[in-house]
Write a structure and sequence with these properties.
Blueprint (H helix, E strand, L loop, with lengths): L4 E5 L3 H11 L5 E5 L2 H10 L4 E5 L7 H9 L9 E5 L6 H4 L7 E5 L4 H78 L5 H32 L4 E5 H11 L1 H7 L2 E4 L4 E5 H17 L7 E9 L2 E7 L32 H11 L4 E5 L5 E8 L4 H4 L6
Parallel strand pairs: 1-2, 1-3, 3-4, 4-5, 7-9
Antiparallel strand pairs: 6-8, 9-10, 10-12, 11-12
Helix pairs in contact: 2-3, 5-6, 6-10, 7-9, 9-10
The structure holds adenosine-5'-diphosphate.
Adenosine-5'-diphosphate (ADP) binds next to helix 9 and helix 10.
C-alpha cells in the first residue's frame, strides 16, 4: 500500500512549517499549499488521505475550499480537519460540514491533539483502502470464476457436439464392418473351423455392441441439446405408441402392463416417447425370470403432474438409487443384463429440461417404482433452450 498523503493548506508559511514539524513521520507524505487555489491544483494531481485546512485565508477561505471539494466526485470523500481560531460566532459557518468526515483543531494548536486526530483519520484511510483492495480482489476472483465456469460450459458443449457428430459418423463404417463380416461368414463360413467361425461371431458381436453404444450416445446428446417443441400432449397415447414399439420384447417376456388414465401435459412428444420407452424397457428387462408385472400411473398433484412406473423386478440397492441416473453407471453386470448405462441419464435430462424431477423408490412387490414430475406450467426459457446440434 502507498504511503498516505496529507494536504496542509494555510496562507502562512510559518504555520505550515510548524504543522509539518508536528506531523512529520516515515509512514506518511506531507504536501503543502499556500493558498486554496494551489490546494485545488494539488487535489487534482494527488490522492489525499486527509486535508488540514486553515479557515482564515485571503481570496478563497477554508470553508469555500471545502465547499469545492465536496462538489467533486474525486475529492468529496477526503476527510477535512479545519484549523480555526475557535471564535464562537464561526460555529454557524461550520454547520453544513458537521455531517461529513470533518473535525476541528483550535488555535493555539495542541501538538498531542493534532497528532492523535491525524492518527485516527490515517487509520480510517488505511482501513478504507484495505477494504477497497479486498473488494477488487473479490471482484477479480469472481470474474475469473465466472469466466472459467463459462469456459467449462463451452468446452462441455463442444465435447457433447463432438460426441454427437463422431457417433453419427462412426455408425456408417460400423454398419459396413458388420455387413461385410456377415457376408464373409455366409460365403466362407462353412470352410472355416469352429474356432474361426467363433472369431467372426465375436467380431460381429463387438460391432453390434459398439453400434448400440453409439445410438445411446446420440440419444444422450440429443436429449440435452435438441430444440424442444412443447405442446399439450396426451401421455396415454404416447405410452400406447411406446408399447407398440416394444411389442416384440413384451411378447417375448409375456409382460403384463397396466396403464391407468394419464393426464395431458405440456411436453415435447419425441422426448416423452424416449422417456417412457427407456423406463418401460428397463421395467421389462430387469426381472429375474419372473413374468414382468408393470403399472403406469399419472396424476395431478398440486402444481405438477406426477408419473409412476411400478415393476416387480429385481429392485435397486439403496446406495445405487441416486447414482444410476448418471451417464455410464450400471447397477448390474453386462453378463446378466445387456446395456450401457445411458438410458436413465437420458430420462433425467428430459425430465429436468422440462423443469421436473426424477427418482426411484422400492415397492411392496420387491421391485422398483420410478417416479418423475412435470410442472403444470412450463417456463418459457425452457422451451427457448437453443439447439446446438
Ligand atoms: P442400462 O439399462 O443400459 O444399464 P440405465 O441407465 O437404463 O442403463 O440404467 C442404469 C442402471 O439402473 C441399470 O444398469 C440397472 O442396474 C438399474 N435399473 C434401471 N432400471 C431398473 C429397474 N426397473 N429395475 C432394477 N434396476 C434398474
Amino acid at each position: 500500500m502507498d504511503k498516505p498523503k496529507i494536504l496542509l493548506v494555510d496562507d502562512r508559511r510559518e504555520n505550515l512549517l510548524a504543522l509539518e514539524g508536528v506531523l512529520r513521520a516515515d509512514d506518511r507524505t506531507i504536501i503543502w499549499a499556500e493558498s486554496a487555489k494551489r490546494a485545488l491544483e494539488l487535489l487534482i494531481e494527488h490522492q489525499f488521505a486527509l486535508a488540514i485546512v486553515d479557515v482564515q485565508m485571503p481570496e478563497m477561505n477554508g470553508l469555500e475550499l471545502a465547499e469545492m471539494m465536496r462538489g467533486s466526485d474525486d475529492t468529496q470523500t477526503i476527510p477535512i480537519i479545519f484549523v480555526t481560531a475557535g471564535v464562537k460566532d464561526q460555529s454557524l459557518a461550520f454547520e453544513g460540514f458537521e455531517a461529513g468526515a470533518v473535525d476541528f483543531l483550535y488555535k493555539p494548536l495542541n501538538e498531542r491533539i493534532v497528532r492523535s486526530k491525524v492518527k485516527v483519520f490515517l487509520e480510517l484511510d488505511r482501513q478504507k483502502r484495505l477494504l477497497q483492495e479486498q473488494i477488487v480482489q473479490l471482484e477479480t476472483s469472481e470474474a475469473n470464476l465466472l469466466s472459467s465456469q463459462q469456459a467449462l460450459a463451452e468446452s462441455n458443449a463442444k465435447l457433447e457436439r463432438f460426441t454427437f457428430m463422431a457417433s453419427h459418423d462412426m455408425k456408417e463404417p460400423l454398419r459396413m464392418i458388420n455387413s461385410y463380416l456377415s457376408l464373409l461368414n455366409r460365403e466362407i463360413g462353412s470352410d472355416l473351423s469352429v474356432e474361426q467361425r467363433e472369431y467372426i461371431g465375436y467380431a460381429m458381436n463387438g460391432a453390434k455392441r459398439l453400434y448400440h453404444l453409439l445410438e445411446s450416445l446420440i440419444q444422450y446428446a440429443t436429449a440435452k441439446h435438441v430444440r424442444l417443441d412443447i405442446k399439450k400432449q396426451d401421455t396415454k397415447a404416447i405410452v400406447g405408441e411406446v408399447l407398440l414399439d416394444l411389442s416384440v420384447l413384451i411378447a417375448e417376456r409375456k409382460a403384463h402392463i397396466n396403464v391407468s388414465e394419464l393426464p395431458e401435459v405440456d411436453c415435447d412428444r419425441m422426448q416423452f416417447r424416449q422417456l417412457f420407452q427407456n423406463l418401460l424397457s428397463n421395467a421389462i428387462k430387469f426381472t429375474n425370470g419372473k413374468v414382468p408385472e408393470i403399472k403406469v400411473e399419472g396424476a395431478e398433484k398440486g402444481d405438477e403432474f406426477c408419473f409412476s412406473i411400478h415393476d416387480n423386478g429385481i429392485g435397486i440397492a439403496e446406495e445405487a438409487k441416486a447414482k444410476i441416473f448418471e451417464p455410464f453407471v450400471r447397477g448390474h453386470g453386462r453378463r446378466e443384463f445387456a446395456g450401457d448405462g445411458i438410458g436413465l441419464s437420458v430420462c433425467k435430462q428430459i425430465v429436468e429440461r422440462g423443469g421436473g424431477r426424477i427418482w426411484v423408490e422400492g415397492n411392496e412387490k420387491g421391485g422398483s417404482t420410478f417416479r418423475f414430475t412435470v410442472p403444470r406450467v412450463v417456463r418459457p426459457e425452457q422451451v427457448a433452450v437453443a439447439s446446438s446440434i
